[in-house]
Amino acid sequence: MAEDDRPDGDDAEIVELPFGVIPEEDEAGIVLPEDPELRAALEEVSAALGSDDAPQDEPSQDDEPRDEAPEEEEPAAAEPVGDEVEDAGFTHDDYRDATTEAYAGLADMVREADEADDVEQSMSVQIPGLGSGVVGFDDIAEETPAAEEAAPDEFDEEILAEIEERRQRRRSLEQRFATGLGLVGIVALAVYFGAGWFVTLVGFFTFLAAGEFYASARRSGYNPVAGIGLLGVIGVFVASWYLGAAGIAVAAVLTLLVLILFYVVNERRNPLANLGVTALGLLWVGSTMAFLAPIAKADGWEQLAGLIVFTVAGHDSGAFFVGRQFGSRLLAPRLSPKKTVEGLIGGVVLAFGMAIALSYLPWFSDVIDLQLALVAGGLVAVMAPLGDLAESLVKRSLETKDMGTLLPGHGGVLDRIDGFVFAIPAFFLAFTLLGLL
User: Higher confidence at residue 99 or residue 315?
Assistant: First the structure.
């Protein structure tokens, strides 16, 4: 086809191909690119198809030449760019058929490549502004530091600390439960052997609790006279056993006089503060717990002692578990960050429940009626939280978390009996007014 028979470039539609520009017309000639290699490749394809020798079909009389096809049916070809193949026999259909044959079996090749094993290879890449270099498969497949940090099987320090804290809490809960069962067994055994054994056991626990208080005070910079204070604790228990409640006052006053005399004779720094800390251990811990001795000498003391132990222990357990599970509103934020209003409500409910349940149980109901059960529940609802808050106040002042570590899961002995400290004197007064002592 001569140049004069080609459509103008303005009206032609150009199809860009990898090796040149071909007008989209059935009998359009092929415009060769300027690259010699591509030109040679295209000429070889043309020769292979026999474009030079292939006879042209004679058009019938009824058919019109393709060059004269209406414009609306065949788009006009663009003006060719570059050199034109001399033989115009290689048509667009020939090119289409050739490329179709070239890609025969391509789908099968893609499927086989997809099923084949990948081979790790390096490749040379050039990044604008960074130059070129060899990039290996590991460089592409290796996770970034951010992805490594977010991997589910690796944890940062905060997550590890949280997991360890949960483990410690679970271990502490198991220890708390085991220690509580052990204490109940020891107390029950002492009650079985008699009032004297019971009071001796309570006095021993009180002695340990006072010792923990004095040790904590020393760690905080105070210098209490722990020897005199602990002797005073023993004295109030012995006096209360033989003299009743009046013996507690006598022993406590005598101990205070000995303390004052000690500071008069010996020059000590900060005598007022240290004397006050020593007296606090005697009066707050020792004297209050000693009120259990007169109760243990009354008729039906086993049931009365059981009422005190079970209601106070029920309050502490209810406050602990309910506060831990549902606690959200702090009861006394400046004193304790863990005591909550929900825990207080749970403790009060369980204390009343335990007292009322005892009034219906055999053997307990011989001494404890519903009226006494309600009184006991009310006393514990007020005095046990006060005992807890009082110890929290002392620990906050001494800047310590627990008074001791003798009881696993509970801390120290004083941490365990703090709810009894104010409850026992209140029970003594209530039992006296009700004529039970």
Answer: 315
